Amino acid sequence: MTDGTDTLKLEGVLSIREVAELEHRHRSRFDGQTPPATVSLADVESGDSSALALLLEWQSRAQRAGRRIQFDNPPESLRVIARLTGVAPLLGWSEQDPNANSGEDRS
Asked: Is residue 82 classed exposed, middle or buried when 0-12, 13-18 and 19+ CB atoms within 10 A define those classes?
């Protein structure tokens, strides 16, 4: 996982073990006044509910510092969990299913 000036880039699989390490590694950055403006998820293969919880926590900490984080290019696994739990809008992700055909009756 690499760190740019105002972008944090995550990679690999994000499950409970990796999430705990990420939270520990980046705690001071998100608790401070300069959390990253963007968290790139383009190189994340998959993530589970613990990864989603971490992103929501980071968003909350950033808001307390008067900033908003943009979470770019999330993997489908995170999009699905966010959509099913109703938190997609909190992360700035569209709730619309990209595989759904608008106006098509599937009955």
From this structure: buried
